[in-house]
Design goal:
disordered N terminus; 3 domains; globular; FAD/NAD(P)-binding domain; single chain; 594 residues; oxidoreductase activity
Length: 594
């Protein structure tokens, strides 16, 4: 489980520790007005400042440390970024741990390949496969409908995977899967499957050149279909998965994700089952062991340090201006800089000189983010609604949820967390913050935190308690926790941890990991990767690409990071090749009947 190269704690970390230990009296007022000299460059071009400690930053630090680089990670909040779990303040009693909260629930589709590889390389006591051994598979998914029978879809509904994925075999398998959604006219299911087959057999040039420009709503002809078709196959898929409205969501992004999931369910290109979660709070099962392992490789962490600016001279980044936990500004120097912050924060550090050195960075200003934020409900009785995720299809706020305690084997929720009265946790993601709710008639951004909690609870009850069975009751509700990154209830609602969304044309504005500045590299879920979706997998793959670019830049002989692309069915490659000819001739895909 160790690294592939020798590692040691770098000079950059020691210098940072000295600077961080200096008090205000020693620094004087001048240090606040101008950056003070902090960590310096090590000889030999081996020091790297990783700016951001989310999944992308931790991955980059991991790969670099294994190759002998001296790495310091600067993180504004806490390692793990949006993927971390966090303690609910004031919730621990009787020697228990605090209740676990989170930005939003984590799930790990089986089509992820790069992130699972990293997890296997993070030691975890008792697990031969490291933190990867803490993944637990779900067995089904539920579509909760308001005023309709809820639909439970086991992941085995596709049946025995066909030995050959011909278009006809795919049509039969996919028709059976989407038939299970219920209440969609058969002819519309067949049409939808036909549209997917157009995607499956489209060449890469058509996917990028044509389908990236077409909204998902238009691609599947939702406007001419039934309300159930629109709700289940158009709106639900886009808003609840990629937080983008179906009317504007890129067909390329939505279809890429759906293709990977369906191949996974058919047993192709899979690391594991289609839907997996962790068997403990994220920090316990993954992030904390990861940070410990990185420290053992010599990585230094500066938590509470936020990046304010990048300085450039002679065509290279010479320093990063950061604000330390005391509020003082410091100058961080290193041989190389890996920007691993979310796009809305990263682009704020690219001043005019940096943008002039790489004009392509300006395209990132066109990338859009939106709110997809979590709230947890702690319950006094076990409430495993389903052994998997619930998509509350008809909820105005586009809610998805999962009952977590059922997966946390070896843990007694009530005995281990909180005050002993809470024994379960429903973790919920809210993807729509700009539509009125059912309780107050206001958008989530217009509500107070208390009102958001009540509204989300009411929307979940509306979908789960409408068929004569009381799944959720107010008497079981112990407490709730809303992501602290959200500030609402005032005239200017803000969210410090937003999600990249994917309206049409987004792909053209996503940058590569290598920039035109030779010692600046980008990683994060906004960087262009094969998965084409704002995910932990995309962040991990982008970090690997950034490290590979750095290795190329310095002429390193170290082994390059492996980057596993999404699965491609070999049976369909001939059809894609034929489609490329048709695309060059200006013809439709052979299966595209309009």
């Amino acid at each position: 489980m160790g690294g592939r190269g020798s590692t040691r704690r770098g000079f950059i970390g020691g210098a940072a520790a000295v600077a961080a230990g200096a008090g205000p009296a020693a620094l004087g007022t001048r240090a606040v007005a101008a950056p003070r000299r902090g960590p310096g460059r090590a000889a030999g071009g081996r020091s790297v400042a990783v700016l951001g400690g989310g999944v992308a930053g931790l991955t980059a630090a991991h790969e670099l440390a294994e190759r002998g680089f001296q790495v310091t990670v600067y993180e504004k909040k806490a390692p793990g970024g949006k993927a971390r779990s966090m303690d609910v303040p004031g919730s621990a009693k009787g020697g228990r741990k605090p209740l676990p909260g989170e930005h939003g629930f984590r799930f790990f589709p089986g089509f992820y390949q790069n992130l699972p590889d990293t997890m296997r390389r993070i030691p975890f006591p008792g697990n031969a496969n490291g933190c990867h051994g803490n993944l637990v598979a779900s067995s089904e998914v539920m579509l909760a409908r308001i005023g309709h029978e809820d639909v439970r879809i086991p992941f085995g509904v596709l049946g025995t995977p066909p030995p050959l994925l011909t278009p006809d075999a795919l049509r039969r398998a996919l028709t059976g899967f989407f038939d299970a959604f219920g209440n969609i006219p058969p002819q519309e299911v067949l049409y939808f499957v036909g549209r997917l087959l157009v995607w499956f057999t489209s060449c890469d040039r058509r996917r990028v050149g044509a389908w990236e420009k077409v909204p998902w709503w238009e691609f599947i002809r939702a406007a001419r279909m039934s309300p159930n078709y629109q709700r289940l196959l158009a709106i639900g898929i886009t808003r609840n998965i990629v937080a983008t409205k179906a009317e504007v969501a890129s067909t390329k992004t939505v279809s890429t994700c759906m293709e990977a999931f369906l191949f996974n369910a058919l047993g192709r290109g899979a690391d594991g089952q289609p839907d997996r979660v962790l068997d403990a709070p994220t920090n316990e099962a993954w992030i904390d062991p990861w940070v410990r392992h990185l420290r053992s490789l010599g990585v230094t962490f500066r938590v509470g340090w936020s990046v304010r600016d990048l300085r450039i001279a002679g065509g290279r980044i010479t320093e990063a201006v950061v604000q330390d936990p005391s509020g003082a500004r410091q100058s961080v120097t290193a041989d190389h800089f890996v920007s691993a912050m979310p796009v809305e924060h990263a682009r704020a550090t690219w001043n005019a000189a940096v943008r002039a050195a790489d004009p392509k960075l300006a395209r990132c200003d066109e990338l859009r983010t939106d709110w997809m934020t979590g709230i947890q409900f702690y319950l006094t009785e076990p409430t495993p609604v389903v052994h998997g995720h619930v998509n509350h299809i008809d909820s105005p706020w586009s809610i998805t949820s999962v009952g977590q305690a059922q997966y946390w084997s070896g843990r007694d929720f009530g005995a281990d967390y909180g005050d002993g009265a809470a024994v379960d946790c429903l973790s919920v993601d809210v993807s729509e913050w700009d539509k009125p709710g059912i309780l107050y008639g206001r958008t989530a951004k217009q509500c107070s935190r208390e009102e958001v909690a009540r509204e989300v609870w009411a929307q979940m009850k509306a979908g789960l308690n409408d068929t004569g069975r009381t799944v959720l009751s107010d008497a079981k509700l112990h407490s709730w926790f809303l992501d602290p990154a959200v500030e609402i209830g005032g005239p200017r609602p803000t969210n410090d941890e937003q999600l990249l969304i994917h309206p049409t044309g987004t792909w053209y504005n996503r940058p590569d990991a290598r920039t035109a500045i030779p010692n600046l590299f980008l990683c994060g879920d906004y960087v262009a990767t094969d998965i084409d979706l704002a995910t932990m997998e995309g962040a991990n793959a982008a970090a690997r690409a950034a490290v590979n670019a750095l290795l190329e830049e310095v002429g390193s002989k170290a082994e390059r990071c492996s980057i596993t692309p999404l699965y491609r069915a070999p049976e369909l490659e001939l059809l894609k090749a034929q489609d490329e000819v048709r695309y060059r001739l200006g013809l439709r895909n052979a299966l595209d009947l309009g």
